[in-house]
Every structure is written in C-alpha cells, then in structure tokens.
C-alpha cells in the first residue's frame, strides 16, 4: 500500500518518476540540439516518457525483482523512447535538429537513467539488509519442501526485506486456525504464506476470510489444487513461485500517487473556488438557526482501520446521540438549513479539507462511525476490505443508491459489495464517472438524502 505503516518504498516510485523526468528534460536543455520550439520538445519527450513507462510498467519493481527483469525494463523503455525521439523530427518537421546531437542526447539519457535505477535498486537492498528497514513480518503455514525453500529465501535473502517469525504445521496435533489467527494478530504479522497442499478447502477459506477482515496480505505456495476460479497473480521469490489472491490497483505506487495528485488538485479547486465564499455564508445561517459550532467533527474509521476526524457542516441541533445514531427520515434533530444542505450534500463539502490533509480521497468507500465499524466488522463478511483504500467523499455504493441510513441488513451488505468492487477494480475513469454521477444526483435529489 502506498501509505501503509512501514512501507516507505511506496514513495520511491513517484520520486523516481520526478528524477527521471528531470534528467530527460535537463539533458535536453543543456545539450546543443538546436531546437526550434524548445517547449514543444520538452512537452513531447515528457509525455512520451510517461506513456512508455506506464505501458512498460517501468517503475513496477518489487523487493524480490531480479536484475534480469530490470535490464529487460530498461531495454524496452529505451527502444521505444529512441523511436519516439527520432519521430519528433519528422512528425513536427524539424530539419534543423542535428541527428548526431539527438543521438548523443539519447546515449547520455540512457547512461543517466540506467545509473539512477541501479543505484536506487542497490541502495534499497543495502538498506533492507544492513539497517533492517522497510521490513515485512511473515508467518508460513505448512511444513514441506516448498515451505522450507521459502523460509530459506526469507532468512538468506535479507535484501528482500522479509522477517520470518514463525512456521505453523497444519498436520500437527495442536494446530488450529483459531490459535494461528490469534498469534498473527498479537504479533503484528504483515503477510501470511500458505502451502495449499496442506490445507483443506475449508481452512483455505478461513485464511482468506481472516486476511480480508483483518487487513493482512495472504499469499499461497501453489500446487495442483484449485483454490478459486478467479484470476491469480504469479510472483517469483528467488525462482520460487508465489500466488497472490487479490491484486488491488491502488497498491501500485504510480496509481496511488496519481490518485493523490488528483485529490490535492481537486480539493484545492473546491476549497478556493467554493468553500472560501460559501463557508462564511453557511456559518451565519447555521448559527442564526441554532446555537453551537459551525462544523460537526466526528471520529470515523479510515485507511488501514485508522481513526481520523471527519469534517461536516453542522446540520443538526447539538445532541448527545450524534455519534451513535444515524440521521433518520423526518429526524427532529435536523435543522431547517440542515435539511437543505443534507439534501444537496453541501454538508459534506468541508471533507475536502480532509482530502487535502490526506485523511480521505474524493472517491472511495464512505467512512463509517467507529461504533458502526465495530458492529459491521463482526456482522458483514469481508467488511474490512473497504479499508484497503482511503475513504471518500463519494463512492460507487452512494451513486448506486446505497447512501444514508442503514435500514436493513441488505443495505449494508449491498454497500460493501460495491465498496469491494471499487477497491478491486479502481481506475481513474471510474473515479471520474462516480464524480459526475454524484453531481447529477445532488441536483436531481436522492431518496435517502435526509
């Protein structure tokens, strides 16, 4: 995860992007290539670099990635960069540009990026090996040749950044999933590695449910047993194949950085363009109708199950039940101005401050009260999966009709289904679609907007 505690390497990808783009542009600026339109060229090569690296997954380098794979990424990246670089001359009709100077620029760029990428790779390896930083605590379920190989990798390849804590044997007399889960929770284990061949289908399901509901990473050592019919992701730890059951798009550093950048820009535009003038006006109206604070600040459950202070314009009279009971239809606590701002979702606008501060995102699963998180976590299967990403001001469940009061169990169950779908299938275009639908719903009105 991009912001998960201890996973500092999540910041490496956006920093690497910035450094490489600086190299690409600074070399073009200082080398004598004789540009007719320098701004056009800089824009062109920057966009070309971003598109190629995105398609090539140039910055998708894991702690267990081999050097051969990095060399392959560099080769593919610069083959396409070379083609697009020389295509600039013909496409934009730039006959004055020296082909030799362009070739020199390409070679210097390759040497610089190659050196930076490998220096970054080596320094990270040394950091994990010597300083023992950026460590993932792991347990292994199973006792066979493959699990011994995996434990050997964890212990010997310290540059991968894994700390092997304990091995459990499902064939042991005292083995039980309950005691295993208790140990994992008490010892702050980050990742669980299971040998599929030693677990029953029921036990596999138990491990999947536990990992989903407790925000643990679960991976499998494969054999010929079928786990599920869904797509699985293969990874290799020093030639040992590992299966990941769930691949979450926002765990990719580039996706997380891109979404965070969009959140900052969008929240700033909203704060400067709307809240700066609308906030004082609403403050006057809220205070004229009822005594109390302008903002309603409530503890909610956010990313990685962390608590944060969620901001809203106060829409109710001050009451002791605000942290325990959701607003109901014809709720006597709601003020007149409160009904209007709740119906139009204007009461949610202060949450753009939460977005700017990094507690929330523009789009994501809606954050719940602490009381409701505890209640639904024990009642709704896979409820905790929604905390793999930041909560949002709006979300897929909300635009599909599941906003507001939870009247029956099916309401929260359907909401969680949409939340999990969003977590597992995030894309920037899905976020845009949800934002547009939210604006349309705000103007047209919604049944549960009370």
TrEMBL record:
Sequence ranges assigned to domain Bacterial sugar transferase in this UniProt record: 259-443
Membrane topology, as annotated: Multi-pass membrane protein
Localization per Swiss-Prot or TrEMBL: Membrane
GO cellular component, one term: membrane
Cross-referenced InterPro entries: Bact_transf, EPS_sugar_tfrase, Undecaprenyl-P_gluc_Ptfrase
E.C. no: 2.7.8.31
Enzyme class per UniProt: transferase
Residues that span the membrane, as ranges: 12-33, 39-58, 70-92, 104-124, 264-286
GO molecular function: undecaprenyl-phosphate glucose phosphotransferase activity
Matches recorded under Pfam families: Bac_transf (PF02397), CoA_binding_3 (PF13727)
Keywords, ordered alphabetically: Membrane, Transferase, Transmembrane, Transmembrane helix
Coiled coil (residue ranges): none
Family: Belongs to the bacterial sugar transferase family.
Name of the protein: Undecaprenyl-phosphate glucose phosphotransferase
Native species: Ulvibacterium marinum
Organism lineage: Bacteria, Pseudomonadati, Bacteroidota, Flavobacteriia, Flavobacteriales
